[in-house]
Amino acid sequence: MMDRHKKKEQARKQRHIRVRAKVKGTAERPRLAVYRSLRYIYVQLIDDTTGKTLVSASDREITKKETDKLRQGSEGRKAKTALAYAVGQLVAAKALKAGIKTAVFDRGGFTYAGRVAAVAEGAREKGLEL
Predict the structure, then answer these.
(1) Taking the alpha carbons of 124, 128, 129, 130 in that order, is the dihedral positive or negative?
(2) Which fold has domain 4-125?
(3) 33 and 40 in contact (C-beta within 8 Å)?
(4) N or C: which end of the chain has fewer CB within 10 A?
């Protein structure tokens, strides 16, 4: 019998495959891919035509001082969700610096709620059009 955690991960990967069949990133409008682990959140802007990552960000890039402030929660968000929101803002700032204004959101098989939705909200707030 398959371990419960492996079964959940396999189901998420299947959902991701279904999403990826419909979502493609180009140089003008790259794919904003999100991966959420139990501890961290990672975001990349990917050009699928060349297979290259244009911009990436994670909550590991945020300084210790900022992380401690965000872990206390901000604007009614819990700690990890506040960090995810900050990562969305960070990736949007990097994207705008690289000349990218629009992107296609790829939730990576995760539910569009909580930390995944917070990344999208943060990116939209900083000016990235999803």
Answers:
(1) negative
(2) Nucleotidyltransferase; domain 5 (3.30.420)
(3) no
(4) N
